[in-house]
Amino acid sequence: MTETLTKQLPTATPLTTEDAQRVVDQISADVEMAGQVAEQLDRDPRLLLVRLFALAPAQQTGLSRMRLDRIRSTFAPVARALREGDPVTVRIIDVPAVASAFSCSFSVKVDSDGVAVEGSITT
To answer: How far is CA 30 from CA 36, 42, 110, 112, in A?
Structure first.
């Protein structure tokens, strides 16, 4: 990731809607950083999400179980929005932990107001 991200990225921990939105807003406000983040979303969004949101090991495990091609296609509208300067909103769903189960889900919706990302990572 270091070859594409030359700027210091903001991070959000713990992963909350407010902190995630703050991070996305900071990235969106910097055209160079937004481009670099969009490029990383095209390559491997999992690595970027782990870095941006300081995910715990169990959360990283849930994220790593998502197929790379699926997560790339899911986040393609986000990358496009960052490149084009369109608004990106984030909502993190707080899911209670389930014993010995790791799951991860994201949905991305595009409409006239921009791109909305909704995600949950169960640990």
So the answer is: 10, 18, 21, 22
10-46 per-position pLDDT tens digit: 776 667 888 888 999 999 999 999 999 999 999 999 9
Whether 115 and 108 have beta carbons less than 8 Å apart is answered as yes
Supply the Cα-derived Rg of the chain in whole angstroms: 14
- The answer to whether the CB of 40 falls within 8 A of the CB of 100 is no
* Whether the bond into 14 is cis, omega within 30 of 0: yes
The DSSP element (H or E) to which 35 belongs, if any, is helix 31-43
Write down the pTM of the prediction: 0.76
Joined together, the tokens standing for residue 37 give: 């983040």
User: Which helix (H) or strand (E) segment is 116 a member of?
Assistant: strand 114-122
Residues 24/88, Cβ–Cβ less than 8 Å: yes
C-alpha 90/C-alpha 31 separation (Å) is 19
